[in-house]
């Protein structure tokens, strides 16, 4: 009688162990009818849609993502160390603004996008390293029960430290798929992503719609079956930490 019974759990054990690993993919730059929007939205996995505020398809993309069951976060434009302010789009957070203006702009951006559960930074290598600016961001997230994802455009970012101190749930990007727009670079980044899954229990990566959008969607789509053997795709809210390491 016992012969088969003791063997029953065996096949599921490795799976359970492997499935304990989580991967979260965030796709940035929705909101401007960008290339790859349709391809990304049709990916057969949970992922997180980061929408820029005040753009032609901001509300529409957030609605579509929500209808498809994806989490929506605000992709908030922030000042970079290098680059032009004009690249940032409307309502950007820059370090020369007053506290009141920063507060006003962040709140307006949150309210522009339906279904927002959190925020990540668009660019922002200068702003995310500025304590005054980031304290205002963290404060608003605490007041509104929003989560924070640090896109990690600079190692000097203070998001994790300040969010951790304030008890705001946060997590940090570990890899960009498409910081260069070529198919070969995106494919190499996917190889790195898979290696990270072997090394860690949680891996977070960011891709983009726009110039690399269709290529990134294709690379992700092709990798899904292999990744799913090792890990579970989760929305960004399932990757949060509550205090600083």
List keywords for this structure.
single chain; 245 residues; alpha/beta; nine-stranded parallel sheet; disordered N terminus; Divergent_DAC; Divergent polysaccharide deacetylase family protein; Glyco_hydro/deAcase_b/a-brl
Structural commentary:
It is a single chain. The chain has 245 residues and is of the alpha/beta class. Helix content is 40%, strand content 19%. It is built from nine helices and nine strands. Strands 1, 2, 3, 4, 5, 6, 7, 8 and 9 form a nine-stranded parallel beta sheet that branches. The longest helix has 18 residues, at 213-230. It is globular, with a radius of gyration of 19 Å. The termini are far apart. Residues 1-18 have low confidence and may be disordered.
Q: Beta-sheet strand percentage?
A: 15-25%
Low confidence ranges: 1-18
| Residue-averaged pLDDT | 92
Count of helical segments? 9
Span between termini: 51 Å
What sort of overall outline do the alpha carbons produce when their principal axes are compared? globular
Order of helices and strands: HHEHEHEHEHEHEEHEHE
Helix content: 25-40%
Largest sheet: 9 strands, parallel
Classification by helices and strands: alpha/beta
Whole-angstrom Rg: 19 Å
**Beta strands, count:** 9
């Amino acid at each position: 009688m016992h012969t088969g019974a003791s063997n029953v759990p065996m096949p599921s054990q490795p799976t359970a162990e492997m499935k304990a690993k989580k991967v979260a993919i965030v796709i940035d730059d929705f909101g401007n009818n960008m290339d790859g929007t349709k391809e990304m939205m049709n990916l057969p996995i949970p992922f997180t849609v980061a929408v820029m505020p005040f753009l032609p398809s901001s509300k529409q993309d957030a609605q579509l993502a929500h209808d498809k069951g994806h989490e929506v976060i605000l992709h908030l434009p922030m000042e970079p160390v290098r680059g032009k302010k004009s690249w940032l789009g409307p309502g950007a957070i820059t370090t020369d603004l007053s506290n009141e203006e920063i507060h006003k702009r962040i709140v307006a951006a949150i309210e522009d996008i339906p279904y927002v559960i959190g925020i990540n930074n668009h660019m922002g290598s200068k702003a995310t390293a500025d304590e005054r600016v980031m304290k205002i961001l963290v404060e608003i997230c605490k007041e509104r029960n929003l989560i924070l994802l640090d896109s990690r455009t600079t190692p000097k970012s203070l998001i994790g430290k300040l969010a951790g101190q304030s008890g705001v749930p946060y997590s940090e990007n570990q890899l960009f798929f498409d910081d260069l727009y070529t198919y070969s670079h995106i494919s190499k980044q996917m190889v790195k992503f898979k290696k990270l899954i072997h090394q860690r229990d949680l891996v977070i990566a960011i891709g983009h719609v726009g110039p690399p959008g269709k290529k990134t969607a294709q690379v992700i789509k092709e990798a899904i079956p292999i990744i799913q053997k090792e890990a579970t795709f989760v929305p960004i809210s399932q990757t949060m930490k509550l205090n600083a390491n």
